[in-house]
Write a structure and sequence with these properties.
Blueprint lengths: L7 E10 L2 E9 L11 E6 L3 E5 L4 E3 L3 H18 L5 H35 L4 E5 L3 H4 L6 H7 L1 H15 L2 E5 L25 E3 L6 E3 H17 L14 H6 L25
Length: 272
Amino acid sequence: MHRPLQGDPKEVTLIKKASGWYAHISCELPDIPKVEPTDAIAVDVGTTHYLTTSEGEKEDNPRWYREAEGLLHKHNQTMARRKKGSNRWYKAVHAIALHQERTANKRKDFIGKLVYKLYHHKENNVLIAEDLSVSNMVQNKYLSKSISDASWGKFFEWAGNIAERDGFHFHQVDPKNTSQTCSSCGKKSPKKLSLAIRTFNCQYCGTVLDRDHNAARNILFKAAAAFRGERWVTTLYEARNKNEAQDAGLQEATQLMLFDALNKPKSLGLGS
C-alpha cells in the first residue's frame, strides 16, 4: 500500500493491468465545506502549450504519446515478426501493453501534479476553464491525435475531483469568442482569427497579447460576470455602459464592465 488509508473503507476493486494486479480501495470521507471563493485563476488549454493561465504563465505540453510512438512502433514490428499465438508473440503483446500503460501513467502523473499546483502552489481556491466538447473536437483529423494525447477531459475531471476533495471551486464557462475578443477593450475582432495566428492584435485599442493569454483572461472575466449575475456579451462590444445598451434597444442586456479590473486579473471580488 503506497499511502495510509483515510476514512472508512467501503469496497475493494481488483484490477489487472500489464504491470500486475492492483486493489482500489474506496473509503468514505466526511464532506469538506467549500471555502469562500476569493482568488481565482483561469486556464486556456491548447496543443502547442498544454495550458496558459490568465496571469500569462504557460505550461509546456509533454506530448506523451508522440514521445512514445517510436518505441511503440518497434514493439509492433517485433510482434508482427513472431508467430501469432506463440509464447514469444504473447511476450511482445505484453511489452506493448506495458509500454502503453507507462505512457498513460506519465500522463496521469503530469495532470495530477499540474492541477495540484494550480490550486495549492499558486494559492488559488477557484479554477476556471472552458466547457469544451472534447468528443466533438477529436473529429478534426488534423488535431485528433494531439487533442487525445493532451487528454483535456482527464484534466477537467481531475480539476473537479480535487476541488471537491479539498473544498475548492472548479467552474467551466462557454468557450464562444474567448479567442476572438480583446480582453482589454471588450471588442470582438472583425475578422475571425485562424489557429495559425498565435498573437491577438486588437485593431481598436492596440493591445497585443499572446492569443492563449488573451483567451484565458476572457475566461476569467466570463466567470466573474456569472458570479455577479451578469452576462459576458461580446455581441454588444459597441455598448460600453448600460445607457448605451438601452439606446441600442437592448434593455434586458447587461454589459460586463471589467475593464477597470485588468490590473488585478486574479481577483474575482466574490462573496460567499
